[in-house]
Amino acid sequence: MTAHATADTGLRGLDAGDLERVIEIDRTPGGRTRRRFFEKRFAAAAAHPEEFVHVGVMRGGALRGFAFARLLRGEFGREHVTAVLDAIGVEPVSRETGIGRTLLHELIARLRAVGARTLHSQTEWSDPELTHFFAAAGFKLAPRVALERSLATPLVEQIEED
Amino acid sequence: MARDTLTIPERVGDAQEISYASPAGPNVGALARDRIPVRAMKADDLRALVAIDRRIVGRDRSGYFQRKLAEALQESDVRVSLVAELDGHCIGFIMARVDLGEFGRVEPTAIIDTIGVDPDYRSFGVGRALLSQLIVNLRTLRVERVRTEVDWRDHDLMAYLERFDFAPSQQVCLDLDLVAAR
Predict the structure, then answer these.
(1) What is the ipTM of this complex?
(2) What are the structural domains of chain A?
(3) pTM recorded for the entire structure
């Protein structure tokens, strides 16, 4: 990961020192965190920096937002580099101030710089704020469908062939 | 989820790593997973996985599978990826992830990344055995749901997954063309 920028405000890569702040920014209104997810992402990014692109926005000497993308090579049967937006977040008091757009703009620039040609993401259908954010950034509906199965019920099985 | 190839968990540390990918007990009847032995995926399965994938897609994706296997085995909190064997040979695999959340509880959603079946064994119920065992294992872990992504043009795969009670989720898949969107 890149070193911290020295400027009080601006854009920079993330490093291990940002872990707790990122977890805090990502905390849900209900208080739930994704500590394990971010611990693993930061560890993986430190071990394999060539597989991650990340950016943070500094204001007033503090990290106000972050974006994390993972690079995939050879997935989806393609040779070109694809990126997956793992996480993006802006602290609640700094929302509606353009930080999200700045983050995504910078992330896209960094992804292009490493040769990524597509950025994949997912959002909840019922989250109009995030859906609008992605739409305004130029995202389109992907030719993929997210399928889900509840595990509340067991699989009804019988002997049969595929 | 790629049709040809479909991964799950990440790791806290070796001491905390748990494997729940073992097959179910003997009280489940003569189901697909009983006829096709299914076991936990191991690091030395890489060569077999790459060979199956090569037969499906027609090219070598060793690098890609090396990363996916490392992700499934080393970055996962809970190892749930499986391999199907017949006569000692790997004939299929499913790569999936499920993470530990707060207080050591598993996250409610598991992700299936890749499933692959040797083309010579497509009528042997290998995919069913793998999916069936994965669902049993995830239910044992008290995971609430399992999710995957499928190319919307792959009607066969979508129909296949529907047979396992998969249905559209409330997640919307989005793409940004980084070449065009300048």
Answers:
(1) 0.86
(2) 10-136 (3.40.630.30)
(3) 0.80
